[in-house]
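#help-structures
NK: newbie question, is this the right format to request a structure? protein is MoxR-like ATPase
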Amino acid sequence: MAETENLVAEIEALGEKLGEARASITRRFIGQEQVVEHVLATLLGGGHGLLIGLPGLGKTRLVEALSTVMGLSGRRVQFTPDLMPADILGSEVLETAPDGSRSFRFIEGPVFCQLLMADEINRASPRTQSALLQAMQERSVTIAGHAHPLPVPFHVLATQNPIEQEGTYPLPEAQLDRFLLQIDVHYPDRDTERAILLATTGASEEEAEQVFTADELIAAQRLVRRMPVGEAVMELILDLVRAFRPGEPEAGELVNSSVGWGPGPRAAQALMLTVRARALLHGRLAPSAEDVVAMARPVLSQRMALTFAARARGETLGHVIDSVTEEVTRIEAAA
C-alpha cells in the first residue's frame, strides 16, 4: 500500500514538473502543442524521434529549446550529401610522440553528446544514415574494433524534409524502426502564426529555461516504466499491432490488400512506453484506450508501408492506420 502511494506521489510530482517543461518549451516553439507532447513522450520513453515537415516550421528551434529545458548537452549535425560516417562518429588519428613512437588516438565525433540533432537527415547518403544505427540501438559506436560508449542519456532527434523534395534519400527501413515516434510538423493555424510573428520579430524574444537535469530525466524514464498498464490496454496494443500485419489472423481485408509489410514487436514496445508517457503528460496515473488511439499513428507510420497497388489507388498510410485503429478499438469496446 505504501509503495503504491509513493508511486502515485512520484507520478503526480513528475507531472507537475513536465507541465513546467512544456510551458518553457512553448515560449520558444509557439503553438503546435501535439508536436511538443510527442517530443516529450519520446524522451520519457527513452527513445529517438523523427520530425517530418517542410523547412521553416521551427523544427530546429524546437530541438534547441528541448536541449535547454531538459538540461542535456546537445550538438547539431547538418546532414549533406557529402557527409561521411566519420564526420558523425569520429575517427582514429595516428600521432607521433616526442620520442618518435607512434600510436592511434580516437577523436570523438559530434555523436558523443546527450541530445543529437540530425538536421535534414534524409539529405545524406544511406551509408551515412546507417552510421547512426549502432549508436541509436546500442548507445555505443565501434571504431577500429573498439567500442566507445555514448553519454547517458542519449537521444537522437532527426529532422526530415518530405521525400518528394529534390536532393533527398529515403531512410533505410531498419533505421526507421529505431525511431520511437514519427512526429509530423504541419503548418501552424492562423492564430498561431500571428503569435509567432509578434513573438519573433520584435526587439527581444522569450528564452527557454532549464527545468530538468540529465539525472532527473533518467529518473523520469525509470518512473514511466513503473507505471501500471491495465490488461485491457495491453490487449488493445497487441491486437492493434498485429492487425497491421498482412496474413495474420487479426488482419482485415484493408490491411491484406493495402499493406506491403507491417510493424514488428518493436512497435508494440514503443506503444507500451509512449501511452504511459502520454498519460503522464495529461496528468493521469495510468494509460487508457484513448492514449493508444492517440499514439497509434506516430508509432506505426514509419514501421509499415503500403503496396504499390494501394498507392496507385490513392490510398494513404495515415488513412489506413486511422481506419484500422478505429475498427480495432470499436471491436475491443464491444467485447
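mod (FA): yep, format's fine, and the C-alpha cells are attached above. The chain is about 50% helix and 15% strand.
NK: thank you!
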